[in-house]
Amino acid sequence: MDNFTVARVLDEIAHYIQLSETTPFKSRAFERAARSVEKLEQDVNALVASHKLLDTPGIGKGIGPVIEELVKSGKSSYLEELRAQYPPGIFDLLRVPNLGLKKIGVLYERLAITSIDELERAAKDNLVAALPGFGAKTQQKILQGIEFARKRESQFLLPAGLEVGELVREQLAAIEEIEDAEVAGSVRRRLEVIRNVNIVIATRAPERVIAQLSRIVADVEVIDETTVKGIARSEVPVVFHLAYPDQFGLAVLRATGTREFAEAFEAKAGRDLAARNEEQLFEKAGIAFVEPELRENADELKRKKRPKLIHPSDLRGTFHVHTTYSDGRNSVAEMLAAARDRGFDYCGISDHSPAAYYAGGLPKERVKEQQADIARESKKLAPLRVFRGTEADILPDGTMDYGDDLDMFDFVVASIHSRFQMTEDEMTERILTALDDPRVTILGHLTGRRLLTRNGYLVNYDRIFDKCAERGVLMEINGNPQRLDLDWRHLRKAASRGVMFVINPDAHSVREMSHVISGTWVARKGGIGAKEIFNTRGVDEVAEWLEKRATKV
DNA sequence: GCCGTTTTCGGCCCGACTGTTTTCAGTCG
Predict the structure, then answer these.
(1) pLDDT band at residue A39, thresholds of 50, 70 and 90?
(2) Domains (ranges, CATH) in chain A?
(3) Do residues A53 and A64 lie in contact, with contact meaning Cβ atoms separated by under 8 Å?
(4) Is the CB of A136 under 7 A from strand B?
């Protein structure tokens, strides 16, 4: 059993404890132990074998045996006991905003509520308002929260759509009558939030294909001779569009959308639209190929010159990478190796600053340890060039966390992690003040949004774009699929005002280094090319730029 | 439950916000 699995079990136990315990300390102890196990340098199995488990901070006589049992038998009787006390799916209630484990615990104890549907009924029957710690307003908020959660239920982040699309396409390949299949729709357009996955199938035997689709998706529903719906992975709606091979190009174009784009295309194109693929279709129509990402409306068909969009292989390095020094899951060495394995020439490490207490922000002394670690590890990974940075909080008054100590860093990502509900004016002033700090290199995730979870804070985009351009501060395109912030809808405007972008993964693990790819989706969708992205530049140019900026201070 | 030590219990615990309270609890980042 690996360290992360052990940590997940401890976290689950902590969750259950919170449901029943009145004080937070016991559950926090389990959470602390989980974090401790995650950050272990060595394998937890080895630690148990050598009887050194109890030397680990946060693991004592209570939690130690839990881990030991887990490692030896693969299960935890304590967790199983807890699971047996509550209905499965009790944590599903966490999807209702402002509903935490304490309140869920009360709802279950007093009203035996185990699901969102039951909660809605109880709130409508006015039973929730009477509970201790609840009231009329909380009850009202719960009902609103349920509505919010339901609306989200039918939406998915793009990576989920891409995964389902690929999976289904692979399964379709096994059906003999299918000559070709392509993922279309909003997934192909790389829209950040999707409702379904559209897949176009080329076949000469549509009936025989339709008869076999139930092997791939559930709840098959035949809409007409060419359209079939189903559900993949028991939650994601899939729409199949069937076409004869010589009509495949047009079918892909139509299913990719948007409708506005497809209609404008067909109006512009000739009458004979038979084509085996989209490239052929565009060629036949005498229209320059429009990348799917740019088809949200018909504007691109009016352009004379095609923009050259950025490609992931244009990226030479990246910034905004977290490590175990703050809230990352992997060590400095592991993150740097991941950057090298990606073929990068440089990588910027940036852990949190002290104001981000909940994320384990680093005090000055810890920064020194981290930088010594970076110095050691970067030697081993040469020629990879490592930049020592920070993701420092923009404090509520617009000053930067670390203050003058920002001099310790090669680069500074300035981000907001607190006081989200300021007015637009206040928030804009706060950010503008930070941008005037000459040590700030990059403005991190501009709006702090979490897709499908919470809206971003309010800002005046134009004023911030102008200030970034004026001060030469790079604007981050945060590639975390939950953020994708700055939004692609703002990129062209920002670029036209002279803003330079940087695509960052905001990686908290080796796996999340791939967020640089999702970052390029945003840039492409915004119509941005390599020239406008700072980290397409070579390592020498980047190093020189950073140094020049630092000495200007 | 863990930790530390004024050695066996008491403290752990950031800060804003909201709503429930009438001084605090729950949630969130």
Answers:
(1) confident
(2) 3-153 (1.10.150.110), 157-302 (3.30.460.10), 312-552 (3.20.20.140)
(3) yes
(4) yes
Nucleotide with C1' nearest the A104 CA: B26
Only one residue has tokens 């028991």, namely: A234
Q: What are phi and psi for residue A26, nearest 5 degrees?
A: -65, -45
A60 touches strand B (CB under 7 A): yes
Positions in chain B where some atom is under 7 Å from a protein CB: 1-3, 11-21, 25-29
- A28 CA to B10 C1' distance (Å): 17
DSSP string computed for A522-537: HHHHTT--GGGBGGGS
Average pLDDT over residues A336-356: 96
In the 445-474 segment of chain A, residues within 7 Å (Cβ) of strand B are 448, 450, 453-454
Residues 273-332 of A with CB under 7 A from strand B: none
For tokens 């981290």, name the residue: A370
pLDDT at A27 over 60: yes
Model pLDDT, residue A22: 84
Using DSSP's 3-state secondary structure scheme, residue A353 falls into coil
Judge if the beta carbon of A52 is closer than 7 A to nucleic acid strand B.
no
Check if the beta carbon of residue A431 is closer than 8 Å to that of residue A398.
yes
Q: Please state, in angstroms and rounded to a whole number, the distance separating the CA atoms of residues A2 and A44.
A: 7
